[in-house]
């Protein structure tokens, strides 16, 4: 039985480039009906150049938020996101750099406050993965890079943002299905995502008295530049086929979940994780 879900493809450059993907990911659904749920809000979104981060930025803008777009160095992809935000009638502030760098995090907040004067939503979404067949193949350099990008960056950026957040603010962390099911070739990545989940739960308890909510989203297989840049052609060609729905998710499938967690619709939810994974039952 043919389990192909995508054309075979691979990118040698990491992080990947969305403009090289076939087909391009869908980052917004025309069936979505905005309702002004984030009017007057300012959101910081990491990894906003493409994939889930782009979808979040666009959905937020359609709901009325101005968006601070953080990304590493994928300028062409980021420009497309910026155009989409501005076509939605909102303002975008593009800031390139490494959010694992504490100095960059402080600069992000400085520029955000200078332009918008407030921060209402933080989406910690940026991350990286490097498949290895055996634990012995994971070098110290890879281990440190993965933890630095995927969890230490969240600590540093959140630490920089928090003094400027008021009651009613929302923090949303992107964890992963791998935090709950594991993955035999993404051992270090899965470990960081487990840390993200625990960070989300503990921080939610810490900030509850301040009226700041902290939740997470745990995607399953989603078609983003991370996939062709980290897996071989054969793996990409059947990506997402093992889900109950039999396909990979699109970034557009996830955007509304982030809107829900960012707006007042989820005012009684904190310390929780939404599982958008194509139908896998996760008990955790």
Automatic annotation (TrEMBL):
<feature type="compositionally biased region" description="Polar residues">
    <location>
        <begin position="1"/>
        <end position="14"/>
    </location>
</feature>
<feature type="region of interest" description="Disordered">
    <location>
        <begin position="1"/>
        <end position="30"/>
    </location>
</feature>
<dbReference type="GO" id="GO:0016614">
    <property type="term" value="F:oxidoreductase activity, acting on CH-OH group of donors"/>
</dbReference>
<dbReference type="InterPro" id="IPR036291">
    <property type="entry name" value="NAD(P)-bd_dom_sf"/>
</dbReference>
<comment type="similarity">
    <text>Belongs to the short-chain dehydrogenases/reductases (SDR) family.</text>
</comment>
<keyword id="KW-0560">Oxidoreductase</keyword>
<dbReference type="InterPro" id="IPR002347">
    <property type="entry name" value="SDR_fam"/>
</dbReference>
<protein>
    <submittedName>
        <fullName>NAD(P)-dependent oxidoreductase</fullName>
    </submittedName>
</protein>
<dbReference type="Pfam" id="PF13561">
    <property type="entry name" value="adh_short_C2"/>
</dbReference>
<dbReference type="InterPro" id="IPR020904">
    <property type="entry name" value="Sc_DH/Rdtase_CS"/>
</dbReference>
